[in-house]
Amino acid sequence: MRRLEAFMGVRVLTYAIMSNHWHILLEVPPMTELSDDELHRRIKAFYSKQRANVIMQEYERVTAYAQQTGNSAWLDEWREKYTSRMGDLSIFVKELKERFSKWYNRKNNRKGTLWEERFKSVLVENSDHVIATMATYIELNPVRAGLVEDPRDYRFCGYAEAVAGGAEARKGIEQILHMHGQQASWRKLAAQYRIHLFCTGEETSERPGVNPEKMQQVIEAGGELSTYELMRCRVRYFNDGVALGSKLFIEEVFEQHRSWFGEKRKSGARKIRGSGLEDLFSMRDLRLGAISPPGLASLG
């Protein structure tokens, strides 16, 4: 995943890999023209040393031909072969699933497809509140599922990778926190993020989560309370909501893709029922409550 991230020029902010599904919060920057040096760096970051050497030899041949003949069509075709795969969410997920399937089949001596359905994606507004909400939902998946009491102990998630020293995972969490105005060392940011996760993940009568006593221990040992809103998450809005963000953001997305909706649809933004949040909207008006802050019972 990290090698594919480096090759495609996207940023994995955080992720969680479960037994039968996975979640990833991915930033896809606008694609810009790449210099030859940057393209070479990405190729070397992604492919094996042997394969990268072969690709670089191809580059030298097509470059020499372009210089000798003045015809750059072959060189342009070579560049397009690699750059066309970059900065695209669908291609990122497709290649990630393909590479995992090949590894899994080889490891387990099996053949055939591994994934049942096409992936689902939600367009997330680039704001501190919405990004933090989505990151929290992802990090707490293994806790909500009752697999671990502490997300740090679930090795297949961004938070655990960051705690273990993963540089790229730390960059992702730092970016999430920097969006929320937190500027500090990794040690302080990690403490704030941990407090936030434990407060957000408190268990309820409806679903497993962080034990209140454990949460209090983390708060007492870790420092100040986070400024993030405490909230509960249900899966449907984050998987099926199409877009998530402020009312203005949803309306802008709606107008950009007006042809996707019927003539009777006059506006895009729909409040998330049962959330208690006045500033968070979804593109779809789902019937089930999605988020329940402490003290509010979820609907459905």
UniProtKB/TrEMBL annotation:
Gene Ontology BP terms: DNA transposition
Span of domain Transposase IS200-like: 2-141
InterPro entries with a match to the protein in the record: Transposase_17, Transposase_17_sf
GO molecular function per UniProt: DNA binding; transposase activity
UniProt name for this protein: Transposase IS200-like domain-containing protein
Originating species: Pontiella sulfatireligans
Phylogenetic placement of the source organism: Bacteria, Pseudomonadati, Kiritimatiellota, Kiritimatiellia, Kiritimatiellales
